[in-house]
């Protein structure tokens, strides 16, 4: 695995981007994202997927090209939660009812082992799952069909079963959406939801599954695009120093990799230069941006400027990313 001291600044900055792309094979633009922007990872969506064989060829080609360019292995990620969020379809095993039907440790473990094995076989090494959001009893929000059943403690326990099972099969788990979006009724793909629940209430409920996952060794967490006004009335969690530095890293002691949710969502109302600066300020490691545009170049350019101004914070972020890639390589089944 590359060491940060052996990498150029462009290579370091690229590690902080996970991006989407167009096409189903190694196109010239995808090569550009790897060899010029030097992205650290990619995410596949339904338009990138024709069949398991095609995905396997694509993943192999991307990893081979990254190696040819002298870069660390790519994170190759997908949203495969089961239920309504499952990018890979048959002949992979489908879990049509998703997390709400995974109400026992055995069911959660079976989902994680099956999904991890099948994703790894076609070349993925990261799943944007499990969802650790908690839906309050008697409440039906935007996440109703995507959350595990039960109390915060039960959600955490079931999430850990999925997380550990995925990683046993060589696929890194990314727990989400910190600090919890189970209480929201608006969709951050379309607007910026506001949540005024006090932090002390969140600490007894929404944060509990994340505490359980962190204690079990969770290595990566995705931040939500929800504005938690009791914590930070200016920025959504994904761009908030109070949420990330104050709660996630400070209060909860998480020292793993942090990433935004998709920066293309309508909940992100600022421009990409501002978003990039906030990512640095908030101590977020990876920007996730899922739809090809010139925003990729804006993020990379602004990250490079910020890395020059704040080299220590940048080095810590890249170090966490490279350490996670080392874990990814070490956990891969033989």
UniProtKB/TrEMBL annotation:
Cross-referenced InterPro entries: GH, Glyco_hydro_3_AS, Glyco_hydro_3_N, Glyco_hydro_3_N_sf, NagZ_Beta-hexosaminidase
Domain Glycoside hydrolase family 3 N-terminal: 8-305
Example GO BP: peptidoglycan turnover
The family this protein is said to belong to: Belongs to the glycosyl hydrolase 3 family.
Biological source species: Desulfoluna butyratoxydans
One Pfam family per UniProt: Glyco_hydro_3
Keywords: Glycosidase, Hydrolase
EC number: 3.2.1.52
GO molecular function ontology, one term from the record: beta-N-acetylhexosaminidase activity
Protein's name in the database: beta-N-acetylhexosaminidase
Domain of life, source organism: Bacteria
Coiled coil: none
């Amino acid at each position: 695995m590359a060491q940060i001291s052996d990498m150029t600044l462009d290579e370091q900055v690229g590690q902080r981007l996970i991006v989407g792309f167009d096409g189903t094979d190694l196109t010239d633009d995808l090569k550009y994202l790897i060899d010029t922007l030097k992205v650290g990872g990619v995410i596949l969506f339904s338009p990138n997927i024709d069949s398991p064989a095609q995905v396997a060829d694509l993943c192999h080609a991307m990893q081979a090209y990254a190696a040819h360019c002298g870069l660390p292995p790519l994170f190759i990620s997908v949203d495969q939660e089961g239920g309504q969020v499952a990018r890979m379809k048959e002949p992979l095993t489908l879990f049509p009812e998703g997390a709400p039907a995974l109400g026992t440790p055995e069911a959660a473990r079976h989902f994680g082992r099956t999904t991890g094995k099948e994703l790894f076989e076609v070349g993925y090494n990261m799943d944007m799952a499990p969802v650790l959001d908690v839906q309050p009893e008697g409440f039906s929000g935007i996440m109703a069909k995507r959350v595990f059943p039960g109390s915060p403690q039960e959600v955490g326990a079931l999430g850990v079963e999925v997380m550990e099972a995925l990683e046993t099969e060589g696929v890194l788990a990314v727990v989400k959406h910190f600090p919890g979006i189970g209480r929201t009724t608006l969709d951050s793909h379309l607007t910026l939801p506001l949540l005024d629940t006090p932090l002390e209430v969140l600490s007894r409920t929404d944060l509990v599954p994340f505490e359980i996952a962190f204690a079990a060794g969770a290595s990566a967490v995705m931040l939500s695009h929800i504005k938690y006004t009791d914590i930070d009335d200016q920025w959504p969690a994904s761009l908030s120093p109070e949420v990330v530095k104050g709660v996630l890293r400070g209060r909860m002691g998480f020292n793993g990799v942090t990433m935004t949710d998709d920066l293309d969502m309508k909940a992100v109302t600022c421009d990409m230069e501002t978003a990039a600066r906030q990512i640095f300020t908030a101590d977020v490691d990876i920007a996730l941006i899922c739809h090809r545009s010139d925003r990729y170049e804006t993020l990379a350019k602004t990250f490079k400027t910020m890395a020059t101004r704040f080299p220590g914070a940048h080095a810590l972020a890249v170090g966490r990313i490279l350490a996670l890639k080392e874990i990814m390589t070490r956990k891969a089944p033989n």
